[in-house]
From TrEMBL:
The lineage of its organism: Bacteria, Pseudomonadati, Pseudomonadota, Betaproteobacteria, Burkholderiales. It comes from Pandoraea iniqua. This is Glutathione S-transferase. GO terms for molecular function: transferase activity. The keyword Transferase applies. Residues 88-209 form the GST C-terminal domain.
Length: 209
């Protein structure tokens, strides 16, 4: 039984929950960082597990890891899922490429619009910055749409892979944020395709943006 530490509404915690479901890995969630304040990230016990004070963290029989995408790779590699995370170098590199694209390019683009329009967070109210961020987000979603037009299925090809977990959650955030969405038919079809998977319905589009 893997311990997954982190509030269940966190997009990065949901990545781990979704993959555990795909791999049929039993897990228990401990909602560190939740709104009640009963499991604060400043707790010394949590800091001992992750000095960055961020979620998720997993404990797999005493092996502790943080950083959500690294956790995804670890779980796929240790649970024998070559279909999700291929062992062939070129196939694996393609999956890693899209996972890293999501973290390095797509995530920063949607952060400001999400914090401004969904979270209504203080300090995210500059119209010029919001407009530029939305434009960049749309540009990157067009890149994804072009890739999905080419594959006509999932991000890396015909089969669902590890890359679809972080990108699928980002696509849910795209549709959940009240901005003007350009017509991206391949992204829409991809979202519908992911929605046929039980894990995505439970942990991807479960009503939490």
């Amino acid at each position: 039984m893997i311990r997954v530490l982190g509030r269940p509404g966190s997009i990065n915690v949901r990545k781990v929950h979704w993959l555990c479901h795909e791999l049929d890995v039993p897990f228990v969630n401990e909602p560190w960082g939740d709104a009640t304040g009963t499991l604060p990230l400043a707790d010394p016990g949590f800091i001992a597990l992750n000095p960055n004070r961020m979620v998720p963290v997993i404990d797999d029989s005493g092996f502790v890891m943080w950083e959500s995408n690294s956790i995804l790779r670890y779980l796929a590699a240790t649970r024998g899922s070559s279909a999700l995370y291929p062992s062939a170098p070129r196939q694996r590199a393609r999956v890693d490429q899209w996972i890293d694209w999501q973290a390095a390019d797509l995530n920063p683009a949607w952060r400001y619009p999400f914090m401004s329009l969904v979270r209504r967070a203080p300090g995210y109210d500059n119209p010029a910055t919001l407009g530029a961020s939305v434009q960049r987000w749309c540009e990157l979603m067009t890149v994804l749409d072009q890739q999905l037009q080419a594959t006509q299925a999932f991000v890396c090809g015909e089969m669902f892979t590890l890359a679809d977990v972080p990108i699928g959650l980002s696509v849910h955030r795209w549709f959940s944020t009240p901005i003007e969405h350009p017509p991206l038919d391949a992204v829409t079809a991809y979202y519908d395709r992911l929605s046929q998977r039980e894990g995505f319905r439970l942990y991807g589009r479960n009503g939490t943006p």
